[in-house]
Amino acid sequence: MKRTLVLILLALPFGLHADLLSDLLKGEYNAETLAADKQDSILATMVKSPEEPCRYRLEYENKVGLFRHSFVADWYLVDNEKGTRTHLSDGPVRDAVLSPNGKYVAYAKANNLYVYKTDFNTEIAVTADENPEIINGTADWLYEEEFAITCLFAFSPDSKLLAFVKLDETEVPSFCWQDYFNTNEQPLRYPELDCLRYPKAGDPNAQASVCVYDILYKGVKTMQTGELEDGYLPRIFWQGENLIIEKMNRDQNRLELLSGNPKTTICRPLYREQSDKYYVDYSFVDQWLWLADGRFIVMSEKSGWAAAYLYSADGTELKQLTPDGIDLTALYGIDEKAGKLYYQAAVTPMERQAFVVDIKKGAITRLTVEAGTHDLRFSSDMKYYIDCYQSVTTPNRYTLYRADGKLVRELLNNDALQQRWEALALPKTEFTRIPTERGDTLNAYTIMPTDMQEGKQYPVILIQYSGPGSQRVLNRWRKRWGTYLATQGYIVVDADGRGTACRGRQWCNETYMNLGQKEAEDQISVARYIGRMPYADSTRIAMIGWSYGGFQTIRTMSEYNSPIRCGIAIAPVIDWRLYDSAYTERYMRRPQVNDWGYDHADLTLRARDLNGKLLIVHGLADDNVHAQNTLLYIDALVQAGKQFEMQLYPDDNHFLRRRANYEHLHRRLMLFLNENLAH
Q: Are 379 and 372 in contact (CB under 8 A)?
């Protein structure tokens, strides 16, 4: 049968509005990703044979969000042959998944797993735990937030088995906050408590185990994963008849992949990586590729750079496939017949380019050329790819190529959008490298005010995030609140300091075990460098940050030599002992073994050192960085005799998008900046 290449073009980064400047007001502080799905019903999953059209698909509606990404909804099974649409279960469920053969749907409901038989329209309970602190098959708050996963179950390729992670949160402490409005946005006369299990640094985690359910015989077995040491099982997936389990110790400096036999429950070690100096990145496993003969391709930083390695089926390293000196950022796939591996790499920290390497010969060919960000999407047979290209001056452009790099045709160029954007004559985003006082350089972008006048000096705003492994200075198409700020007469600067990504493992881990200090040194170097420019006013420099960036804003303003006149800290971490275990311990290890590092980063102990005027902002229902951080810090400021400004938002979370809060926030920020940087 003739193969058909199906192309799915994603929506543009943002919609066009009559007033694009108002859209710019929405900002770009936060390095964390926001999931935004505004559809009531969405095509979720389809099952088909290679030669047949899809028979089943899953749809949902009435979506209600849980945490950052997870949600419950009314899920429906659509039978395309019969033209029927069947409600899967009474009440809302989450993470519905079709089996490979289309005979079953698995989903979670009230922390238990269920299997729905599509032939008989019947529901079977896989688990029946009555303890609400036991979660079967889905992520708790911590796994979802810090391991970027919601669904922790998977069908075997033959659809006979269902593997899942079981989490026991019984020993995990609860954190509670008050809600002042009900679900209809009406105020409550008596506030209600909202609580969730939230392990802070050093506190007990959920106990994890892996189970396998036999759909035919309806039995559950527990896999022998060995001692977990209060650690994590963040990924499970099938490779043939074997269940692959990712296992990490609590400090996250040891990663293991186990290959489990679901019949015997015995797991053998397949891969192990450990570091005495740094953490090991759990997310690289998502990029690994598996060959038909059992060999697999690993993405790892063990050489000091993110690179690809070929391993035998028994877990023996065979060769390194990509070079050191640049960081590998994605593995796209492998054409096994041709023996070619396709990947993305950061040729410079600000660029993303695509390459292909001959696995046998080692020859590397660069597929993309234009400066900017290239992200490839391959057809299932690896014969074609779509180059999704963007740069700071070019909105998303989609072009179809053959796998050898030969152009087939352009699919979408967005020229009309680019022309409309350029017609606005907004300030340009320009990349630069800023030398630091310690002798190295930082990647940065600057946005200069419109219609700059010779001899006039302008105030400067540093916008940063600074978190470990993050990166904001990238050659890609983005709307930026900084662009709007530049139209208001501000010089805007954003610099990636030590601890950020794609400059090798050592650079990324410069801040390991001591968050805050080196990042502050780098931001001060940036402020001083820009302040020496003839068009900048070194006495009018502000700094803004959200989440980790809020922490870093206050930390920088607390240095004795800080040149920051005023700062804005939104949802800041104040004391890392108050933040969650998985994130904090990844970069700081536990307080029990790094007491000095936690004390050194505790901003309440630096309240007396705060320089300049501070606006601190927090949502009182923030389940991520709890408002407890801000409240304890302002008490420390009061005791130190320090004045400050504060903006609180009741019943809102980490992103402050509820009701009219987001627009109000940005207007509040503008008032603060204009008042403190006017003269």
A: no
Q: CA distances (Å), 275 to each of 229, 272, 509, in order?
A: 17, 10, 12
pTM exceeds cut of 0.70? yes
Dihedral (Cα; 648, 649, 655, 660), 10-degree rounding: -130
634-647 as b/e: b if 16+ CB within 10 A: bebbeeeebeebeb
Please name which of 554, 674, 666, 671 lies closest in space to residue 614, comparing C-alpha atoms. Answer: 554
Q: Are strands 536-546 and 458-463 parallel, antiparallel or unpaired?
A: parallel
Q: With helix as H, strand as E and coil as C, how does 303-338 read?
A: CCCCEEEEECCCCCEEEECCCCCCEEEEEEEEECCC
- Pick the closest to residue 153 from 129, 132, 135 (CA basis): 135
Cβ contact 571:620 at 8 Å: no
Location of structure tokens 């054409």: 335
Distances (CA, A) of 256 to 230, 245, 273, 280: 15, 8, 6, 10
Task: Report yes or no: 171 and 246 within 8 Å, Cβ to Cβ.
Answer: no
CA 69 – CA 86 distance, rounded (Å): 25
Report the candidate in 544, 373, 368, 576 with the shortest Cα–Cα distance to residue 466: 544
Mean pLDDT by 10 residues, the chain (679 residues): 33 32 44 36 48 83 95 96 94 96 97 96 96 97 98 98 98 97 94 97 98 97 95 98 98 98 98 97 98 97 98 97 98 97 97 97 97 97 98 97 96 95 95 95 97 95 98 95 96 98 98 98 98 97 98 98 97 98 98 98 98 98 98 98 98 96 97 94
For the chain, give the number of residues: 679
For 471-537, give the DSSP string. ----SS----HHHHHHHTT-EEEEEE-TT-SSS-HHHHTTTTTSTTHHHHHHHHHHHHHHHTSTTEE
Contact 598, 513 (CB under 8 A): no
Cα angle: 649, vertex 652, 657; to 5 degrees: 100
> Tokens standing for 315?
């877990």
d(CA 103, CA 388): 35
Whole-number Å distance between alpha carbons of 372 and 364: 20
CATH superfamily name and code, 425-677: Alpha/Beta hydrolase fold, catalytic domain (3.40.50.1820)
Contacts of 256 (CB under 8 A, 6+ apart): 246, 247, 248, 269, 271, 272, 273
Q: Where are the domains of the chain?
A: 425-677
Report which of 643, 647, 574 is spatially closest to residue 610, judged by C-alpha positions. 643
